[in-house]
Design goal:
Structural class: mainly alpha
Distance between the termini: 105 Å
Helix content: over 70%
Number of strands: 0
Strand content: under 5%
Radius of gyration: 28 Å
Oligomer: single chain
Number of helices: 7
């Protein structure tokens, strides 16, 4: 009675090696998926921290990185991977959006609106607002306001 060559010692060893490789690959993929899920959660946590701090005058990448217990470079990279934009662009856009709402719903001065939106300097606020909207904050208020009018 002859043995089936498919189950020879050599083939069993090859099958064992292939199974070991397959198990290692599977474990590596599970680890990557797990770390990706953890990274996604950390990214969401990072964005939440920034969103909660958007109006603070002292908001900076370094300050957020310290709160997040990571280096500024890692924090910046994770922020961009999570949002698709840089930390600075995200903060500027959120502050300008906040300022737009304040300009249309309050009688606060442009300087006060800028500070409430998180800009420490009025000239930085006006320059950033104009770059993003094409109008200065005062022009935006005059041309867009529906009920809140301030003297020109």
């Amino acid at each position: 009675m002859s043995r089936n060559p498919r189950f020879s010692a050599r083939n069993r060893a090859e099958i064992g090696a292939l199974m070991s490789e397959a198990i290692e690959l599977y474990c590596r993929l599970l680890d990557e998926a797990s770390s990706r899920g953890g990274r996604e959660q950390r990214g969401r946590d990072l964005v939440r921290i920034v969103d909660e701090s958007i109006g603070r005058l002292d908001l900076s990448l370094t300050q957020v990185a310290d709160a997040f217990r990571a280096s500024p470079a890692h924090t910046s990279r994770l922020f961009r991977q999570t949002t698709g934009v840089s930390f600075q662009d995200y903060v500027a856009a959120a502050r300008v959006d906040s300022a737009k709402a304040l300009l249309l719903t309050t009688h606060a001065t442009v300087q006060d609106v800028g500070r409430q939106a998180g800009f420490a300097e009025v000239h930085t606020f006006i320059r950033t607002f104009k770059r993003r909207c094409g109008l200065t904050p005062a022009e935006y208020r005059r041309t867009t306001a529906t009920g809140v009018q301030t003297p020109a």
